[in-house]
Structure formats: C-alpha cells, structure tokens
Fold:
Amino acid sequence: MRFRVGKSSAGFGVHVVDGDEAVNLTALDPAVGEDLMGLIQGEADLDQLSGRIAEATKMSLDAVTPALPVANPGKVICLGLNYVDHIKEGGYDIPEYPALFLRVQNSLMPAGAPMIRPSCSERLDYEVELMVIIGKGGKHIAEADALDHVFGYTLFNDGSVRDYQRKTHQWTPGKNFDATGAIGPDVVTPDELPEGAVGLKIESRVGDEILQSSTTSDMLWSVAKTIATISEFTTLEPGDMIAMGTPPGVGHAKTPPRWLRPGETVDVEIEGIGICSNPIVAEEDIATFEAAE
Structure:
C-alpha cells in the first residue's frame, strides 16, 4: 500500500493513495494518529483497516497537502557517498566505511513545499535519494535480519549548499540549511518493491532537463548493510530515517555547474515509489511566496 501524510480540512492525518484519490485512514480509526507513527508502532492495524478502505469516502489528491511522513523523526542519518560514479565526480576516494552525517529537523520539509535557496549562497544543489523509514528499532542488528526493521521507503531530495559544505571536512553546514531536504510524499511498504529496494530507476529533473538518472542497484552499501552498520554505534528507533546517498549527475560536478535557481521546480523520482516535487524559492522572497499561496 502507499501512504501519504496530508493536510486536509480536518487537519493532519494519514492517507492511503489509490490512483488520483485518497482515503483518510485517520478518519477511519483515530488510533492511526496524525502521522505514520501510529502504524509504525502498531497502535492501529493496517490489515484491519484495509477491509474498510474500499467503502470509505474518497477525496481527490488535490485536496490533500503533503506533510512529513513522520512529524518528528528522532534521527535522520544520511549516506554521503554510496554510488561509485558520484564518488568519482566529487573527487573522493572510494571509502571503506560509509560517509555518514545527520540532518536536523529545521532542514527538512515535505514534498510540495518551497526549497529555499539561502541569501548567502547561489550554490544550491540537488540530490535524489532513496530514504528508508525504520519500523522496528534495535542495536547491533545483523545484516541478515536488517530488512525486517524497515517499515517503508520514500523519496528524499538532499538539497546541498555546496560552498558551505566545502568550508570544512565536516559537511554539517552545507547539509542543514533551513528547508533544503525534501521528503515524501508517498511511503511504500517493502512488500510492494524488490527486496531492499534494489533495481529501481532513480532520477532527478527540472522540467524536461534530466539531471540524474541511475538505478538503486548501483549502491555500494545496500539497505541491509547500512542498517547493520549504523546500528553498531547507535540504537535505531521506530520512525528514524536513513537516506541512502545519491547517484552521479549532481550540479557541482557539471561544467559549468548547474545550480538550482528560484522559479524552477525540481522533481526527484524513484520507480515504484513516486515523485517528490518542490519549487525553488529565494530566501529573501519566501514571505512573498507564502503570502501568495
């Protein structure tokens, strides 16, 4: 099943998507709650709800505004280098251990929301990524068991301010500008995808311009290996998110560099999961943009 967290006239809730329509699961069972945590933690039973979806009132997707799938994730852990050709275009050596960094809450926003180009830099880059949502926590998780800990998969656009990323060996500044990391809108459960989400076309675009195009089969560290590796040093918890790195084709590696510009809309897409689309807005224009919405 596909899930979308949306904002309707009834407020925030979990919606299951069927074509161009959606059913508000929160309205069917208040135990579902306002984000996916009710389903992740088993407070609501999706199998029981499934039998009621066919007869439930449906709404147009146009009436649903995406929100973050998990409103307040405990941890958002990102892989910086997980596709060989992307590693090479960035001038790095192929690592023996994954390059990991954290995203803070203020840097995240949902699909459809403006991705903000900061006033201090024009070097806003795009990165399409597979994102894993943890369903069952644990520490020292064996690679053979790791996929049992996945609740679902969604999309991530790891918007990166490259000059700030390169100011230091630690990537924190360039990866944590406000409203640069887009997540969602759809969350797909593992049973609807190949094991470990392998072999899926992954792409980023602005209009008809294809920026990145690859396959998740090219990841150095699989989803299972990544979960096992991360759980060696931190306890993974339900609702945590892991971004699986980006393929080649990022803007800073092009000649000339291809930065995202205000007025554009960037789309990132993964086969079988969906599209995350966000307009690019200059920081100095954000108040005007929001007033016009």
In short: The first strand starts at residue 2 and ends at 8.
